Amino acid sequence: MEISGLIDLRRPKARNYGQFYLKRNPFPAIGIPEETPSITVDRETVLKRFQNVIWELLDTEKSMITVMVGEYGSGKTHLLKIFKKSVNTQLLSPGGALAVYIKTPGEDFSHFFYGFVDDIGLNLLTQLSSKFISETMKSQHELMEHIFDEKIRKNFMSLELRLEEVMDKLRFLDLINDLKDSEFSGIDSDLAQVFLSLANPKLSSTAWRWLLGEHLDKDEQDLLQIGTSIDPKTTYKVFRDFCKIIQKIGIKNLVVLVDELERITLLTKLKKDKYQDDLRRLIDDHPKNMCFYFAIAPRQWQDLTKEPTALVRRLKGNWHLLEDFKENETRELIESYLFSARIDQYPGKKVQASFPFCDPSLFPFTDEAIKTISKESKGVVSDILLICRKALELLCDSKEYDVITPELVALAIGKKG
After folding, report:
1. Mean pLDDT by 10 residues, the chain (417 residues)
2. The pTM of the whole model exceeds 0.90
3. C-alpha span between 122 and 358 (Å, rounded)
4. Does residue 298 have a cis bond before it (omega within 30 degrees)?
5. Which option is the CATH number for 63-119+237-321: 3.20.20.140, 1.10.1380.10, 3.60.21.10, 3.40.50.300?
């Protein structure tokens, strides 16, 4: 194993998951959700609740508020990311909705805003900016005069050229000024300038840094033709104007998914009171076309709701508890992960004949092992996944076991051996 005092890494020997008809170990090494979730199990009540909230938002245009309360590891983050994926793959179109996931509210509203912008991302914002400019130019023909090459102008109108391909023949900053006057009156001028600048490849990186609150020197500000920066005192107004821009370019509804709301309970009283007031104001200032979906742990939810603040009064009207998994849900979760890594043409009948104590869909886990995992994990999703991964690793390394039994589960959680 060691060569000249070093660990031999030259010939790695991968675990043979193929002997269990698996392409890999499907259970994540750490019990956190994927960036783009592909598996969700037996959360029909929670999913239906979210579905109804979105339908009501689209139908009535009235803003909605929901708080999802669940223990650490119960799958709150996973569900919020499922919500985001569902909205953005089905509703992100003119007149539709954009979902934004904020992984933590942080310590003040500036963290909220930067998390919001960061999750939307430079690529999507650039696409939205470019699409808006292009469509507006083509609908308002006088704006086409900013393309000073007539041939390029015609090719752009006929869709043969994209906006970024005509930049060298476009008086871009003059175009932006006209667009701000005609389309973004009443919105912070520098914010509108920055948003529109995202469409220009020479300006987009600097504009993106401004949106994330980074300091720009005078030359960089001059490049964008702006004179301000975002700071904690102005962030709330910038957020409101940013939402107006999103709606102005055709995205009617915003779905704001806020994870780890419990973070605000850890703040000093002064900071906590200020932040709660900012969030309360955020809700009150957006009575239409917004969905706020918060996630928080139970103990912190109790702490937060002890004091009947203005924010709490708005949140307590619609909250629900995310239950831990029972044995049936645990089985389904494990089955789903195993299915995601099964080899093609899985010989289920052969497995059933050779391993009668295993349901073929759960092989190599025995029924008794599933019961033990459910009991030992207490139904906490992240713990289920970690136990399963460790048990499967131990099985691969073992010469004593040919399936995962309660004894092997005990070894996986350190209760035996």
Report:
1. 63 83 90 56 82 96 96 89 95 93 95 97 97 94 92 90 92 94 92 97 97 95 94 93 95 97 95 96 96 96 93 92 90 93 93 94 96 93 93 94 95 78
2. no
3. 48
4. no
5. 3.40.50.300
